[in-house]
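ok trying this again, last paste got cut off
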Amino acid sequence: MIRRLYGAVPAPIRGIAFMMIAAVGLVGMNVSIRHIADDVHPFVIGFFRHVIGIGLLAPFFLRAGTNPLRTRRLPLHGLRALLNVIAMLAYFLALTMEPLAKVVALTFAAPLIATLAAILILGERVSWARAGALVMGLGGALIILRPWSVEISPGSALLILSAATWGLALVVIKVLARTETPVTLTLYASILQVPFAFVAAIFYWQWPTLEQFLVMALIAVFGSWTQLALSQAFREADATVVLPADFTKLIFAGLAGWLFFAETPEIGIWVGGAVVFGGVILNAWLEKRAKERAAAVAPPGDTSQNPP
């Protein structure tokens, strides 16, 4: 019955719905982190978020049917995990310093940074139109930061660091995805991030109370929920279809900041966030068109566009 109803919903609608569910999960995680960050250091929260998250994702690893630990690219997995941890810890720290809407708005820059890194590191070619989309998105980030009128705060610097390292991690993921399965990618990210997070947490270590542990469990639930919903959204429909719904997390973050923390985001955050997001959407659309053109001109039997 449920499967029949699910199948009756068009795939694009399902994809958009899952993207919005992921947005709610991310904002729920942010609110939960802010709730206990005054009593538990964000680095400790990050460590427990990963430890509990592994337990939550274990059933997905165990049902894979093959050995998800099989890999010949362990160093790259380690690099991806290190970049992820730096991005996460910087993000968690920034949550304690900046309004929720600003934190979310600047995260939109990560895919643009990933595209720029792919051009510089992997030598990917980019059209003038996509270059314009990148400039547009990064210009939106400047609108949010306003470095010409205000000093960049420590929280803003942490958000820039988080977006940059997450963008680099996306490039590493792109390379790994050529040979690794999604399960292997997720499993190694989960396992290898724990020791990196522990090294950071040990300097601020404290055993959480039962209430704090339950909140951290909720943070892990929201984090895993977000990852799974994002994966399903991109599985249901093309990125250019589901990505516009990702903008709802800025709306949800603004509402959550107002309801729970009496925050009123500045107009520049909304304008800058919209510009950054516009650059992301335009870049994704142009990338899709480029791939479609490349596939159309490829000779029959040519599989070079789809590396193993």
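PB: full thing came through this time. The radius of gyration is 20 Å.
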